[in-house]
Amino acid sequence: MKKNKAVVVFSGGQDSTTCLFWAMENFDEVEAVTFDYQQRHQEEIDVARDIAAELNIKHTVLDMSLLNQLAPNALTRTEIDVTEGEGGGLPSTFVPGRNLLFLSFATIMAKQIGAKHVITGVCETDFSGYPDCRDVFVKSLNVTLNLSMDDDFVIHTPLMWLDKAETWELADKLGAFEYVREKTLTCYQGIRADGCGECPACKLRRAGLETYLAKLEGAQG
Description:
- By secondary structure, the protein is α/β, with parallel strands linked by helices.
- Helix content is 45%, strand content 11%.
- It has eight helices and five strands, in the order E-H-E-H-E-H-H-E-H-E-H-H-H.
- The protein has helices spanning 14-26, 43-54, 65-70, 98-113, 135-149, 164-173, 177-183, 200-220, and strands at residues 5-9, 29-36, 58-63, 117-119, 154-156.
- Strand 2, helix 2 (43-54) and strand 3 (58-63) form a beta-alpha-beta unit.
- It is globular, with a radius of gyration of 17 Å.
- The relative contact order is 0.16.
């Protein structure tokens, strides 16, 4: 049963695009918000704009350039290499405070447009160890935002307990498998669709895709 209005935190990547389709399935009215923090690739914002336009979703891009100044890392500085975390450390792509700020501003925007629901594609099943992707963080922030604005928002995380293969499966169930595969940008090198195939984001995306396709093949065989 559809209900009310929702705001999707939208980057144009596999996860947030799957969440956008999920929101379109579950809510009467959906808007998307993308944050420009002078990320490594402007292409990310272009992809988000393109997808929102194709799906006829009202789309807002908010300036978050201050985050770039405060949090130098591989996603805000081209001179910093993309590396995976070693010895339990965080990857060089971790942007401190990013989801804290994104979800806070998305909820402020939701209040202005009369929406009670905010959707984000964070996940702690197949993820890079980012602390601000954890369920406990999202639930804690949800309480804080409601207290701060004396309101009753709900932050939805449809992918929180799904691995990447299950995220592909969800996209397929939503009738968006080919769209997500062909139109989204996950790659740290700024290459749409299947990407460069070598960066950590591409490897995670491809491994999930191969697992899901193998599952389909097994079911058909």
